[in-house]
Amino acid sequence: MPCPVTARSYCGLMTTSGVAIEAVGLQRTFGDKVAVADVDLSVASGEIYGFLGPNGAGKSTCVRMLATLLAPTGGQASVMGFDVATQAADVRLRIGLALQEAALDDKQTGRELLALQGRLYGLTKEEITRRIAQVTSFIDLGQAFDDRLGTYSGGMKRRVDLAAALMHNPQVLFLDEPTTGLDPISRTKVWEEVRYLNEELGMTVFLTTQYLEEADQLADRVGIINHGVVVAEGTPEALKREIGNDVIIARVKNPERAAEALRAVPGVSSVDIGGSDITVGSANGAALISPVAVALAEANVQVELLSLRVPTLDDVFVSVTGERIADAAQSTENGTN
Amino acid sequence: MTAVSPDVSTDRGAAVTARPGGFFRDVLSVAGRAVRALPREPEAIIPALLIPVFFFFVNTGSLTDLAESSGAITDFKAFQLPVSIVFAVTGISRAAALVTDIQGGYFDRLLVTPIKRPALLLGLMVADFVLVILLGSVVTVMGLLLGIRFETGILGIIAFLVIGALWGLAFAGFSYAIALKTGNPAAVNSAFLLFFPFAFISSTFLPVEQLSGWMQSAARVNPVTYLFEGLRALILEGWVWSSIGKALLAIAIMGFVSFSLAFAALKGRVAQR
What we know:
heterodimer, A: alpha/beta, Rossmann fold, Alpha-Beta Plaits, 2 domains, 6-stranded mixed β-sheet, 4-stranded antiparallel β-sheet, 14 strands, 40% helix, B: mainly alpha
């Protein structure tokens, strides 16, 4: 649903209805190299959507297209109802972008950078002062706000970058790998701030990440992208449930023989080998753990470790980008058609 | 005594709405940032001042007696001052900073804003103009302190500065063109090489009539030769409009070429390629 201009300041607060980001057959090639092959997206207003994938999967290229920095070579995309290629100016007024490497200017202070950002979005002097106060109330910029950015730590730069993306109160916030290279404490802090923006201010967030935990923790919905194609999409819970309710991890000396034995155990829904670890998916892991142990003993396999846990997005990722990638790609296709 | 107006500082209802900033405000915003950066980069400004001062003293120190005794030049110091201001302002630009922005991603951050694209370059040029006027002033004051007098008086001094600054700006267009085209700091540094033929295949040390053979022919097509003539007229002769006009025309031609290249490069850079 396109956002009516007269009501645009309220659109950011919508949490239940409306499509914030839409892409159909989005494609981008650089010469012969296909960065984004075919991406369909539909992100609702108020949603946190996580794009999960390894380096070079096409995540950043997608974000750059959605943020009007790069024109698609095929397909279409719109943000808040405006086409990213033909109505870029309208898109720009409604989005904020924090790039992978905090894109700042070492010679300016944090305050100067935010003020300049405000001016470029047409804010008055009074609005800029007020907005800096608001933004710094939920993005912790600490004591160094009036120091030059060149002196900031990596985590601080990331937060200034985030604050800069928020100066004009955007409806949709794009975060390209917001925590790559950050220490765990800074990472948690960025997560808290992103959650606040989404929950308290109703901001739609589109983030890319290569951290499974980040997608799991933050995103309402996750799209797994590999080689420029979305290979799986859903809520983290739904994606994990595809693996099974529980997984049993068995670390063994000879995984091939063990896997063969385990596939014969009734109640086992999937068996994946990753190095010396075997991941056994099942609907009820607790009931299955003793048959698994017995099967391993009967197969004469030496077990180094046997544990039961709930599946993670890591397990999903292995399953969709590993041996069974063709199946996963097929199921995504069915899902989107 | 009743407080009726709510505190708007944290009021969600008073949320701001993004809108285009407007062309002039965009230019001023970009210029403001660039001007702020100037005193924070003394490492870039100090060499720009040392080079013209160095050449002034070396040139006048070695050639004054020879030039003046030949009868071709009556006051070699005054003859050299235009060379100093041209050396001071040529090659001054924010092109290196622009490349840093491009490489670091800050340029992308600016492109995501609704900024009017030409303001990205014009704003930097405003800052360049401020700096070249400052550098030119230092050189001019040095000349005045050394006893050089302007035939055209105080207005002539201002004209001298403005013409020098306009030349600096016209030349900066090439640096911006290279910066925007390549996004490569080494390429921008090499723009300095352009300076040598312009600055030395000219009436830098002697009047153009005194130059020999190919050098004289080459100097006659070098815009800097006409620039020197106009600037020298302001000091040594007075308001000789034919010379001053040619200097302005030379700057206009250079500026037209360099700005065309620079804005074409900007257009390529900001396209959603």
